[in-house]
Amino acid sequence: PIDVKFKEKRQQVGKYQGIAVWGPLDAPGQLGIWGTNVCVDFDICVADGACIEACPVNVYEWLETPGHPASEKKAFMAREKDCIFCLACENVCPPQAIKIFQK
Length: 103
Ligand code: SF4
Ligand code: F3S
Hints:
There is one protein chain. By secondary structure, the protein is an alpha+beta fold. It has helices at 6-9, 50-54, 88-92, and strands at 12-16, 19-22, 33-34, 38-41, 61-64, 73-76, 98-100. It has a 5-stranded antiparallel sheet. The longest helix is centred in the middle third of the chain and has 5 residues, at 50-54. It is globular, with a radius of gyration of 12 Å. The chain binds iron/sulfur cluster (SF4) and FE3-S4 cluster (F3S).
């Protein structure tokens, strides 16, 4: 599962479309954790898609990640600011790749 204390242990190494990216980042094989409130460990995400189906406010969209060993697309929190903190996505992700922070 995602390390819920990752913000204490990792550095924010950049942003993609306004979304924070936390390293280590060594694309395409290692993609780090993405997001500030809606956080997905891209190195754990297996592209199950349950999060995308579960989200009532359409926070996620697929991001192609060719060459990543776990899956070649990821749940990208493009509309992270729309999150209503229902936790549906966090609860349905099979590998527990998601952590929601309300603040
Ligand atoms: Fe969507 Fe709820 Fe997850 Fe926020 S916590 S991204 S609203 S499913
Ligand atoms: Fe990935 Fe989990 Fe969603 S595996 S696509 S974050 S349900």
